[in-house]
Amino acid sequence: MDLGSNIRTIRKRKGITIASICAATGLSQGFMSQVENDKTSPSIATLEQIAQALDVPLAYLLLKKEERMQVVRKEERRRTSGGTEQVDISHIGRTPHLRMTLIDLAPGASSGDTPHAHEGEEIHMIVSGSVTAQQGEDVYDLHEGDTFSWNACVPHRVWNDSDKPAVVLIAVYTDSKRDAEPI
């Protein structure tokens, strides 16, 4: 963990000097220098004081770089296709257990010719257009603003049988981490 460099980065970004951190916490400049250079590990109580002086939550100081907020600009989204060739997938973002995608379904497009299953739980929101969703014997026609969710281990299928494109926002949660899997 880069605790010291996290503290230094936050301090510099906020324009706070080591001297003012020391004045607020009662810690010595030598100790703060050692903390920022990862030469010593402060106690949780000391970290709480440093976090207060920096005006950030303690938990924020403890996050690894890959655990911090990630931004994917619209133009930077990875795009793939899936199901039938008329399905365009924009990979919006991910954490190790959760991923979000935006699916464009052309008229007649589907997630596949037959229902499929995989690990995880899914929540879908129809952003525009309308789709039909099937899981087992349940079949629903859904329209803009409607949502549905399911356990993805039960075979399921989504298709657009209208004459207009449809857009669906999907959040998928999995128990196992998906670090190596591209979004």
TrEMBL record:
Residue span, HTH cro/C1-type domain: 7-61
InterPro entries, per database record: Cro/C1-type_HTH, Cupin_2, Lambda_DNA-bd_dom_sf, RmlC-like_jellyroll, RmlC_Cupin_sf, TransReg_Diox_bact_type
Keywords of the record: DNA-binding
Domain of life: Bacteria
Entries under Pfam families matching the protein: Cupin_2, HTH_3
Protein name as catalogued: MerR family transcriptional regulator
